[in-house]
Amino acid sequence: MALGWCRFFGACFIGILFLHGFCACDRAPYYSFMLNATSAPTISYYDYIIVGGGTAGCPLAATLSQNASVLLLERGGSPYGNPNITNLAKFGAALSDPSPTSPSQRFISEDGVINARARVLGGGSCLNAGFYTRASPEYIRAAGWDGRLANESYQWVERRVAFEPQMGPWQSAVRDGLLEAGVLPNNGFTYDHIKGTKVGGTIFDRDGNRHTAADLLEYANPGGLTVLLHATVYKILFATKARPKPVAHGVVYRDASGAKHRAYLKRGLKNEIIISSGALGSPQLLMLSGVGPAQQLRAHNITVVLDQPMVGQLMSDNPMNAIFVPSPLPVEVSLIQVVGITQYGSYIEAASGENFGGSPQRDYGMFSPKIGQLSTVPPKQRTPEALAKAIEIMNNLDQQAFQGGFILEKIMGPISTGHLELRTRHPEDNPSVTFNYFKEPQDLQRCVEGISTIEKVIDSRPFSKFRFDYLSVPQLLNMTASAPVNLLPRHYNSSQSLEDFCKDTVMTIWHYHGGCQVGSVVDHDYKVMGVDALRVIDGSTFNFSPGTNPQATVMMLGR
């Protein structure tokens, strides 16, 4: 039987990460201010122009609309009414959709790790695992934020999108196993970031409907906001003549038909353009607009507005590693609910399900061979025959191969950083990004300690009924190491070294950040240094990922 688990492990891994947190509220609010960009005038004027209707852009637009005219430009579509987003039973369908109109845009870092970026109103909150938790007070102080204002802003977000999850037996066993493993104290249910074990919040309500950052537009003043969908911004326009430094005064964008539009700032000292396009999109747009490393810009024939060598630098992605534990008992389908916040800088989370294949089509999201993700072989060996074989195996999996759960660890920080570079001048093309996972030894050590803690949870008394006695932890590690989770070369036997296990099985938990960091590209008011009337508000400004999961803090920052 153990051999059977090893054979089918790759497919059961695939399914669980996507049930780990994706669907959307099927209630479609009527936003009178939400329009297709094809209906926009060729030229328009606003007090504020926000580029990117994601996790930060939506709360930002809702807030500014109370006292100003705001244009929010989103390159993707609406999350409402899309069954691949709104229907829990179709979870993973959006992430496996490779079409140009998909709400998820896949990319592979130069490290070889498969990743995704959002292309939908609401951003990553439409695609993520749903876990909601605040940053620590220490993080807020280090960021220079006003603690009282941050707390009020978190509460503003939580009134619309945050809920207490319903705990089932498997998640309860993980929680109790963490406590037995020494991740103390038991902090119960809380949104706060506190060392120990806790149940965190979720953006899924009790009916299983996802609530996203797009729901925060319910706060908006309809008379002060225009949201344009399928509006891809090509560049920021700067006025440079007779000025001490360049001043952002407009944007060029195209609608779905390819028609070009221009939006300009009205006259006013406080009027600004704000980029909220995410950790890939924000540095990319700055570069396309002429703000970035001059040598790289000239290589793409981009006119240099400001030589800013730090744009696209200090990119980070929090590495995530997991151990799959097959269960002799059926387990509840659960998203991330419990987190162990350890003393040594690793966060332990878990997800489970009885059938991670879920849909009748057995589509396994962005890890699916159906879209070419067959990382058990090098890219050049991914022949149609190899893909067809992998799809056939998954389509014929025994139901029991999906019974169990994953216990995950994500390291804090991280300390390791990389960089982002343009590949083309087209804003819809992914830039090249390198994260340098585990380049810094302390990151690797945190992973090792995290995996060691997971081993203790698996061996704990509370978790004992959810594991097979004859499958040792080294066997579980070997099963995990044989799964198709990335494109990196593998060591022969990862169970011999937890360091090798961490490097060989590294995945993303989609918490990448950096590229426009405070102190390097923007100042502490998030104004782009060296130009006027331009800010960046999103995760690209973070030096480290906030809390165990960043979405709550990104929404708070937008507010």
Task: List its salient traits.
559 residues; 13 helices; alpha/beta; FAD; disulfide bond; globular; 6-stranded parallel β-sheet; GMC_Oxidoreductase-Related; signal; 7-stranded mixed β-sheet; disordered N terminus
Q: In words, what does this structure look like?
A:
The protein contains 13 helices and 26 strands. Helix content is 24%, strand content 21%. The strands form 7 sheets. A 7-stranded mixed β-sheet has the order 8-9-20-21-22-19-25, sandwiched between helices. With 559 residues, the protein is of the alpha/beta class. The chain has helices at 2-19, 57-64, 83-86, 137-143, 147-161, 169-180, 278-288, 294-299, 384-395, 441-458, 473-481, 498-504, 551-558; strands at 34-36, 43-46, 48-51, 70-73, 104-108, 114-118, 131-132, 186-189, 196-199, 201-202, 225-229, 232-239, 247-254, 260-265, 272-275, 291-292, 306-307, 313-315, 319-326, 338-341, 346-353, 404-411, 418-421, 432-434, 507-508, 534-536. A hairpin with a 4-residue loop joins strand 20 (338-341) and strand 21. The chain is globular.
* Fraction of residues in helix: 10-25%
Number of helices: 13
- What is the radius of gyration? 23 Å
The 3D shape can be described as: globular
Topology, number of strands: 26
Strands across the major sheet, in which order?
8-9-20-21-22-19-25
Largest sheet geometry: 7 strands, mixed
| Beta-strand residue fraction | 15-25%
The mean pLDDT is 86
Terminal CA distance reads 52 Å
Low-confidence stretches: 1-27, 354-383
Structural class: alpha/beta
